[in-house]
Amino acid sequence: MGRLKSQPAIKAIEEEPEDFESTDSSNTVTLACMIDTEIAAVLAVMRRNVRWGGRYMSGDDQLEHSLIQSLKALRKQIFSWQQLWHTITPVLYLQPFLDVIRSDETGAPITSIALSSVYKILTLDVIDQNTANIEDAMHLVVDSVTSCRFEVTDPASEEVVLMKILQVLLACMKNKASAVLSNQHVCTVVNTCFRIVHQAGMKGELLQRVARHTMHELVRCIFSHLPDIDRTENALVNRAGSFDQESAGVDSDYTFGSKPTNIGNANSDYDTENSLATFASGVPGVMDDGTVGAGSRKDASPYDLHLMTEPYGVPSMVEIFHFLCSLLNVVEHVGMAPQSNTIAFDEDVPLFALSLINSAIELGGASIRHHPRLLSLVQDELFRNLMQFGLSMSPLILSMVCSIVLNVYHHLRTELKLQLEAFFSCVILRLAQGKYGASYQQQEVAMEALVNFCRQKTFMVEMYANLDCDITCSNVFEDLSNLLSKSAFPVNCPLSAMHLLALDGLIAVIQGMAERIGNGLTGLDLGPVHLDEYTPFWMVKCDNYSDPNHWVSFVRRRKYIKRRLIIGADHFNRDPKKGLEFLQGTHLLPDKLDPQSVACFFRYTAGLDKNLVGDFLGNHDEFCVQVLHEFAGTFDFQDMNLDTALRLFLETFRLPGESQKIQRVLEAFSERYYEQSPHIFANKDAALLLSYSLIMLNTDQHNVQVKKKMTEEDFIRNNRHINGGSDLPREYLSELYHAICNNEIRTSPEQCAGYPEMTPSRWIDLMHKSKTTAPYIVANSRAYLDHDMFAIMSGPTIAAISVVFDHVEHEDVYQTCIDGFLAVAKISACHHLEDVLDDLVVSLCKFTTLLNPSSVDEPVLAFGDDTKARMATVTVFTIANKYGDYIRTGWRNILDCILRLHKLGLLPARVASDAADESELSSDPGQGKPITNSLSSVHLPSMGTPRRSSGLMGRFSQLLSLDAEEPRSQPTEQQLAAHQRTIQTIQKCHIDSVFTESKFLQAESLLQLARALIWMAGRPQKGNGSPEDEDTAVFCLELLIAITLNNRDRIVLLWQGVYEHIANIVQSTVMPSALVEKAVFGLLRICQRLLPYKESLADELLRSLQLVLKLDARVADAYCEQIALEVSRLVKANTSHIRSQAGWRTITSLLSITARHPEASEAGFDAISFVMSSGAHLLPANYILCIDAARQFAESRVGQSERSIHALNLMAGSVECLVKWAHTAKESMREDESGRMVQDIGEMWLRLVQGLRKVCLDQREDVRNHALQSLQKCLAGIGIHGIQIGHSIWSQCFDKVIFTVLDDLLEIAQGSQKDYRNMEGTLLLAVKLLSRVFLLLLQELAQLTTFCKLWLGILTRMEKYMKVKVRGKKSEKLQESVPDLLKNILLAMKTKGVLVQRSALGGDSLWELTWLHVNNIVPSLRSELFPDHDSGLAVDGTVANPSSGLAAS
Q1: Contact call for residues 610 and 656 (beta carbons, < 8 A)
Q2: How many other C-beta atoms can be found within 10 angstroms of the C-beta atom of residue 1412?
Q3: What rounded mean pLDDT belongs to the chain?
Q4: 21 burial level (CB within 10 Å; 0-12, 13-18, 19+)
Q5: Fewest CB atoms within 10 A around its CB: which of 69, 460, 546, 1232?
Q6: CB crowding 280-293: b at 16 or more within 10 Å, else e
Q7: Tens digit of pLDDT for each residue in 716-753?
Q8: Catalytic residue list contains 658
Q9: Do 425 and 474 meet the contact criterion of CB atoms below 8 Å apart?
Q10: Which of the following is catalytic: 233, 658, 1307, 1376?
């Protein structure tokens, strides 16, 4: 059986610390000497008394008194014992002393010294569990000391004896040999101690204190051994037959005080009969209504007597624990007269009893659960009393009750699920709210207790999982968290300790959640719960309550159902029919209603209108009657009194007023009650009749309109012969009568009365439910349910912390609030609760004071002096940097703060620029500038930004500056200190990291940050915005560009918004400003940085540069040079990344504009030169565009003519690219692709020569002439390299280029020449160009079908040039050159067989046409070149392809 194992006891402190020798003989002598000393001490005291001091003469035949004789006999023996003391029976040397103690002839001083002697012997190392016959010795000591008798001579000596008794008894229990004491002896020891405690109330204060301390030590000593008891024996032996009713009660018929315990004698001042038995003799567990509790002694199974005589273990602990619980019952229900005990029973005794119980639980700990009777005591009797004393007006009692519950929670919570729910609902929540008449002290103690519970890491999680997620339990977690939130709010009152206490609790819960996040993600699917169809769920249990993989999803589903049921209850209360339909629609009731599901809905759903439920259940409709019987079937009335069962039944709905409905309801109740308690009634009709009778009695007794009340006899008479024709027991009816009289059955239960009071009937129901409730879920350190819990409490929590933070003025509380804010942020981020994080940011930003309109003269100094504002500011930016991924709308508030700091000059001067420059700096090791700016550095203001100062030190310098006109005093030390604090605060914020680290933000957060920046910048105003608005817009744009550059890999996400914002600025600006400057150059910078990385976006990026082309003329003019430089830089860095024609078109358009701008043209031309030089960057896609751009630079008169000539050289040199592409096409492409490519090359070449043609008309002689030379070079280049250009292109070339340029030059020469100098030379070059090109390409040109037309054109123009008059007279140079040129042409044509005389047949021929015109120019050429031919005769053939030539002519 459950007995104590032999364990080393606590070694008592020895009174005489002699050093014993190690040898056995010397040790034996030493112990003998010590005992001899004690004998001498007792004898000495006895001799001082007259009764013992006289000598008895031998003649009288009288010997010495037996007490003295026994002591002297022991004295003779002790020195003769040679064996080891462990082998000597202790009774031999203890008996004389114990005889003195038990003798009623000895006075208090003698008894006192004898007790001291026994105490000394017990504390030696002689007596332990191995000593011979130790059981007899220990039993004898306990029996003797607890039966101590002595004469009382004075109160002081009496108190000394009592204290000595306590000392010896405690020594017995602490001795190693205490394991051999029986259960009975241990109970007797405790009994005696308590008796002394009880009687000490009339003694001195010291005795009271010592007695109570000893009682504590005894309980601690006894229960500290509970964990050591062999669990396999399970504390009680089955053979005792005492397990049959373990759950029914724990009291036994064997009570303390069953053995007489007489201390003192009839002459003593206190009553010898007032023993512990009066306290422990089975006072029933009577509650308020006078009924007998379930754990009363009459129902309990007693321990067998032989169990009590075995070595002590669980039986004695059960007896002691039950006795301690019964003390609470005695205090509540046994009126103690003040004369009999001076202890204030309203507080002192309950406190004492509770403290003893607390000690027992502290030391027994989790071992209690292994012993059913002990556990049953805790579950029922202890908790029932705790519920009662929890509502005590005494804060001390309440505090002790809460301590016990906390200990019980730690050790036994898995066995106390419903008891804990009841305690929090009926005690803590009732008291802490202060709505039920609780004093401030009670509220404070209750709140302290709640906060203590909140500091237990898993408490709130377990409350949520076990109670809030249980359909049949109340929402304890939700109620507690709401209570804490509300209690932290100071409503129309200053901040008090209560508010801060509630805040501590809230933050403890939040920090517990934050710590669990650090233990890693759960790995479970915690998505939203849905019900797709109805499945019976009321009584469903989880497969495994210890495996999170099972219980987490189970409880989340239960919580979802519970929430939906509350909504359904609301619908039902408005309209029962529609309410049931709603529940069917949400799959909480089956599509076809069945009685059981509706009955469960009525029984277990909180918040239902009990009037409507009563009407439904009382309805005569067949379905309603079925529901009523199913409803009654949900109750457990096993072993329950009829009135208790009826109370429970009628608490769940309002009994209808009509008699027929009452009849139906009571029939269903009676049927269920009889079904579970058939031993009481003969049939269910008897139960029905008595139930009706109780309802009538209840009305009679508690209705004020009934004047003549029913007596007990009347009630018994009315219920005769109802039990199957016979009478029910009179005692049974009498008990029912008094129960109803003393405690009304409420037939109209309160509607949602807040936190209910724990009535006896409710407690009985709770004990019944606890047998069937779901197992208690023990939470571990993982965040399984934190997401759902935090979603419930986050809003009130943020509000509560914010209000306290707003009102409090203590820095330590500031830090507490900040810790809370950071924990909320961490949880919100880790559980992806973006709305909560936004709310937190909004709340915090208000405390930075940065959003308030500046009403102080020196806001910087005010900020430095405001600790709260500085702490809030650091917290805001800590959250932005750590949890920015989950900020959404909160970015606006954060940017508001940043803008305010910017306006105050408190930001690092280049925070935005640094953010954007970071990657550039890190990629360029040659730069010595660090990436992050020190606030103490002085920076130049960014270009065009109208800031008042250039950063924090600029602001500081303003503070220190001395204005010449209005001298300012030097700043005080306080001002300097405030400013220094401001500087340190801004440094701690790491504001630049928000933007430099934006590349790590999640996409949605990044997008919201960009949108917030655009929103903060506002829509640009056309010329009438204030400088401050523009400064804001510029700053926001800087930041926007910074995050754009930092997120080049995600530019697609941002680009549309950024582009539209810049476009709005560009298109709405009509005058140069810092904003449009920042927009234009920001756009260029984005393109520069992103083109290398985003080829897929290259076209779109370059297309955006068209915005620059849309700039207002005044704006464009102001920034043209810088734009050109930036575009040039962009081109040089990214030429290889610009692939498309559209992209190049934008670039060349921008460059072309610069051609006529004095400052910008150089940079523009530099870019064009870079692209076209050596043809490395010319592509088919950009060839024509670059040619056009170069032509514009060639035509431009902004720069020196050398640049125009350079441009012409670039154009002419580009022919090489065409040649290269043509050869490549021919070698590496398929025939069809090659043909297309050659055709494209022809088009490009044509555009090239057309461009040169235009420059040939330039007013500047050198440019004009160089253009002609370049044109000649280009025309000849194609022919030289043998590129096959289509015939049509050659025709176009002569018609649109060569002939046109000759005609235009001729026209210029014949017109006013004041702007053109030396046109004669130009005409000469032109005609030479015509001649040389024709000669070079004669072979190809002769193949043209339009050759005759082309030849005619040449002859016509040579004729015109021969006859042209420059400045009014013919040109000698032309007249000399033209005939020579014509002669060379004709000679070449003759040589190549192009010009030959053909047959006279066929009309006009090339031959005739030629000489017709040549004769007009140089008549002698025919005879000179063709002397052998007669005019008009054909010798041997015709012009190649004559018919074509003639036809064309």
Answers
A1: no
A2: 12
A3: 81
A4: exposed
A5: 1232
A6: bebbbbbbebebbb
A7: 988 998 888 898 999 999 999 999 999 888 876 665 44
A8: yes
A9: yes
A10: 658
